[in-house]
Amino acid sequence: MNKLQPKTVAESKTEQVQIVLNADINGYGRLFGGKLMQWIDIIAGVVAMRHSNCNVTTAFIDKLQFKAPAHANDVVVLVGKVTYVGTTSMEIRVDTFVEGLDGHKRAINHAYVVMVALDENDKPTPVPPLLLQTEQERAEWEAGQRRCDLRKQRRVDFF
Ligand SMILES: CC(C)(COP(=O)(O)OP(=O)(O)OC[C@H]1O[C@@H](n2cnc3c(N)ncnc32)[C@H](O)[C@@H]1OP(=O)(O)O)[C@@H](O)C(=O)NCCC(=O)NCCS
Q1: What predicted TM-score, i.e. pTM, was given to this entire model?
Q2: Ligand 1 pocket test target in 37, 89, 122 with most atoms within 8 Å of CB
Q3: 57 C-beta closer than 6 A to ligand 1
Q4: Distance of alpha carbon 88 from alpha carbon 4, whole angstroms
Q5: Binding site membership of 32 for ligand 1 (Cβ less than 6 Å)
Q6: CA Rg, the chain, in Å?
């Protein structure tokens, strides 16, 4: 197997479903933000592992926007996909929804997570290029490239 053979977005796209349990809610009946962040980190890690076929580590949580709450017993659906890859890093977008009994999905969170692939010595290692197949994937890539440049600039500026 050629480890650096290009891969499509669809090849690593991942969906994860959770039910909000009593242990996941805060004192006023809403899903803990930290619990949702854990689920987001896990799905982003799985997407990155599937794209790179490597162990990965979380380098940066770029955008984490809580748009609406989830409550006890809600069905929470997380969808993760690669939006941009650098040399050893991958940007993963995670969209989180609450799914109603009628199947309608209401968006509650959008996040971008940067994962870095690690070799057997725990050092960053190259990841496969991303094969873009749709207009939406191309638009996400261009936006991901801009976010990557901004992240680099912020690291230089210590901001
Ligand atoms: C992430 C980590 C592996 C990067 O290692 P490093 O020695 O700085 O490696 P490099 O400078 O070669 O960077 C490797 C890649 O990570 C990216 N990167 C590093 N720090 C980053 C940051 N803060 N934000 C976004 N990307 C970052 C680089 O841009 C580079 O990407 P590229 O190869 O696609 O251009 C290292 O900082 C680390 O292990 N951090 C701890 C991660 C961790 O434990 N996470 C779980 C927290 S509980």
Answers
A1: 0.96
A2: 89
A3: yes
A4: 11
A5: no
A6: 16
Helix, strand or coil for residue 146?
A: helix
122-140: b or e for each residue (b if 16 or more CB lie within 10 Å)?
Answer: eebbebbebebeeeebeeb
Q: What is the per-residue pLDDT across 5-62, written as a single tens digit (0 to 9) for each? A: 999 999 999 999 999 999 999 988 999 999 999 999 999 999 999 999 999 999 999 8
Find how far residue 90's CA is from the centre of its chain.
Answer: 9
Distance, CA of 92 to CA of 17 (rounded, Å): 17
Domains in the chain with CATH codes: 7-157 (3.10.129.10)
Please tell me if the CB atom of residue 5 comes closer than 6 angstroms to any atom of ligand 1.
no
